[in-house]
Amino acid sequence: MIDNRTAPRTTSPLTHATSREGTPAAGEHVPAATVTAAADAAPAGAPAPGGATVPASAAASGDAAPASAVAPARAGWLIRPQHRLHAGGLVALIVIANLIVPLSMDMYTPAVPELPAYFGATPGMVNLTLVGFFLFNAVGLLAFGPLSDSVGRKPVLVGGVILYAVGSALCALAGSVWMLICTRIVQALGAGAMVAVSTALVKDCFSATVRDRILMVLQVLGVLGLVGGPLVGGVILRFGTWHTTFWALFAFALACLVLALLFEKTLPADQRVSGGLSQVVGGLGRVARNPGFTLLLVVVSLFSVPFMAYISSASYVYIDRFGETQQGYTYFFAATAAFTALAPFIYMLASRWVSARRYTTILISFGILSAVLLVTIGELSPWTFCLSFLLFAMVEAAIRPYTTSIMLQQQDRDTGSASSLINFANTAFGCVGMVAVMPFHDYVEGLSVIMVSSMVVALALWVYINRAKVPVKGL
Q: What's the CA gap between 223 and 46, in Å, rounded?
């Protein structure tokens, strides 16, 4: 839990930009979201920044916290108070919802080699349980974020958790590989709803001064989930079977359901999208038409292509190509992920001296350097391969938290749609990487080609954003 008393006094350039651009002029109409934020810093009826007034009625309407709740909300760095969960419970809910995907992807991977014999299926059929989950998770991300802009966050979140829990139980009971593929799709759709809503909650509930840090925590825990998933799955297999893995995910979902039911609504009725399905779906279009949002999203998502190609092929590289044992592969994989978990903290330090724009340029440069290392020395040994990709993995982890915060700033409404597009793009691009590496006989060569291509395109788009002076708030 982040404590304001220990937070650094020097804020990032991103935060300064938000403060400057988010302050209305005197007499200017203040959107409901701005009224809510202002109420966290001023009592009802007091002037907001720039001379705008926070109406006393807003405190009672749900658009802002009542006077009695303002102090606790400020102490917990919440824009909208959670009287039952409080700040810690809300962070726990968001963390669990975001951990669902890496755990669902990786917890049962130690059992994957035994599934072809168990089901009497080919390895390719079994791999569809991984690719299918990843693909339909992206579909869920795209569908449920805009829906939450219309009906509210809580109904979609609770429904998503229930769908995920049902899917997990059905996976544990699967009697054929086709049933497992289908139930994994159900599980993936529920996970998509959970992640889309939880990302939107970061903007709905937390002030701009702590939003970056919340996203950084989510990124670190997501990486730890990638590491911990196979390790936890391996422990479960020592005492149970692959069925037990899905029952564990079912129990995890039940814990999340309890928190979701305690969660209080954060999207007032007057801020929801109305007008039927066309308006709800149109939220995706409204967000995507923002060039600053879309171009930055593509740049960041391109990092997911080689990263997920590595996730899907690393075991074959270390075990089949370099002759490492299963345990040796686990050590190399864990070492890469452990260093990756440190990457988001670099921005917390660098943001004191380097702007977000310059920092992004540095990260892209290191991504290109990592691609060069992989091409030149990646094939020599498991150590050089690990070191070459470790640099890229750290860059991929470092670029995501602050750019997610910047992209969420690009629109005042349609936050659910923005959250959906962010997560969908990262997932879809990652799926491209998982599929693109498969045709290569030499996975190291395939990773090299994919990484070089992705980084060249990312650099070209980044140069265009800067040369064309595409407006991006926060950069």
A: 43
Triad 232, 104, 258: Cα angle to 5°: 90
What is the four-CA torsion angle of 78, 80, 85, 91, rounded to 10 degrees?
-40
Query: In whole angstroms, what is the distance from residue 352 CA to residue 16 CA?
Result: 11
**Domains of the chain as residue ranges with CATH:** 85-272 (1.20.1250.20), 287-475 (1.20.1250.20)
291-301 helix and 443-467 helix, angle to the nearest 10 degrees: 160
Alpha carbons within 13 angstroms on the beta-carbon side of residue 456 total 7
**DSSP code of residue 436:** H
What pLDDT is recorded for position 139? 87
DSSP SS3 for 5? coil
Q: Where on the phi/psi map is residue 414: left (φ > 0), alpha (ψ -120 to 50), or beta?
A: left
**Which tokens in the block code for residue 55?**
């109406």
Q: Which is nearest to 418 in space by CA: 319, 251, 284, 281?
A: 284
Buried b (16+ CB within 10 A) or exposed e, 204-242: bbbbbebbbbbbbbbbbbbbbbbbbbbebbbebbeeeeb
Q: What is the mean pLDDT of each run of 10 residues along the chain (475 residues)?
A: 38 38 38 39 39 38 36 54 81 87 80 85 84 86 81 89 96 93 94 88 78 75 71 81 92 92 73 58 81 94 92 84 82 80 76 88 95 94 93 89 86 78 86 87 92 96 94 86
Q: What is the pLDDT of residue 281?
A: 66
Neighbouring CB atoms inside 10 A of 3's CB total 8
The Cα–Cα gap between 173 and 157 comes to 25
* The pair of three-digit structure tokens given for residue 109, joined into one six-digit string: 């991977």
Structure tokens at 232: 């936890």
Q: Which residue has the tokens 């220990």?
A: 6
- Residue found by looking up tokens 């909650």 in the block: 201
Query: Quick one: tokens of 61?
Result: 């309407």
| Per-position b or e across 269-307, b if 16+ CB within 10 A of its CB | eebbbeeeeeebbbbbebbeebebbbbbbbbbbbbbbbb
pLDDT at position 49, please?
37
> CA-to-CA distance for 431 and 270, rounded, in angstroms?
37
DSSP 70-94: HHHHHHTTBSS--TTTHHHHHHHHH
Identify which of 97, 305, 324 has the alpha carbon closest to the alpha carbon of residue 201: 97
Alpha-helical regions (H) of 206-241: 208-239
Whole-structure pTM value: 0.69
pLDDT of residue 89: 85
